[in-house]
Design a protein that fits this description.
234 residues, alpha+beta, 6-stranded mixed beta sheet, two-stranded antiparallel ribbon
Length: 234
């Protein structure tokens, strides 16, 4: 009998899903990418989110010097010419704004193009990656009544935080976990099991050595929790 899908836990895992998404990496891709059982329905829903995630991350100005991001960005540029991608291209162009850029020390660097990002879609990819890696590490899927909450750390217009102390504490704790790197730092994760309730874990992720996320798994705040968790911009 097929294993159940890691994500929905309802249908047979008749196909497999790469975690992290394999399209993040240039070819030839790393040989140690992880696959987990997935149903066809969940996999089809995830494909567009993966494409969106890679486009939005690869277009950031601060990842331009990463070889894997450069290759992904080339694929983004080619996709703009495809008829099926015209809707995405129009939405991206319409969202472009120009904003003042400053260094960490406050030095004015001029204006740069910025674009709108759907953080929920980005966090869905990281949430799925977290659940898949959790299954690979512990051998069981995230149970019903548990959730995975993803935090987008910074670097996106919608991810501003007035008080950064809670974010720094969470990141510092996450970075104490066990590290693993794929594809010349195209994707890095840190993982640790937390003291307390079962399946309480803390994860940090770094994409293209620049784009950071943190994820937490554990019992849902309500006993009626769906297990979906959410996305929080830090």
């Amino acid at each position: 009998m097929d294993e159940l899908c890691v994500y929905c836990g309802k249908r047979p895992g008749t196909t497999s899903d790469h975690v992290p998404p394999k399209a993040l990496f240039p070819t030839p891709r790393p040989s140690d990418l992880i696959t987990v059982p997935c149903c066809e329905e969940c996999r089809c829903e995830q494909t567009l989110d993966d494409e969106y995630f890679i486009r939005m991350v690869a277009m950031r100005h601060d990842v331009a010097d990463h070889p894997a991001a450069s290759q992904a960005l080339e694929a983004v540029h080619r996709s703009f010419t495809k008829p099926k991608k015209q809707g995405f291209t129009r939405a991206l162009v319409n969202s472009i704004r120009y904003a003042d850029m400053r260094s960490k020390g406050g030095l004015y660097l001029g204006k740069a193009a910025t674009y709108d990002v759907d953080l929920d879609r980005l966090c869905r990819v990281i949430r799925r990656t977290t659940i898949g890696l959790l299954f690979d590490h512990l051998g069981i899927r995230l149970p019903e009544g548990h959730e995975c909450t993803v935090y987008a750390i910074d670097g996106f217009g919608a991810a501003a935080l007035a008080d950064r102390t809670p974010a720094k504490q969470l990141i510092d704790q996450a970075l104490l976990g066990e590290p693993r790197v794929w594809g010349a730092k195209a994707f890095t994760r840190w993982f640790q099991v937390l003291q307390g309730p079962p399946m309480a874990t803390l994860w940090a992720f770094l994409v293209y050595s620049r784009v950071a996320f943190v994820a937490l798994t554990g019992p849902a705040a309500s006993s009626q929790g769906s297990g979906d968790g959410g996305c929080v911009a830090l």
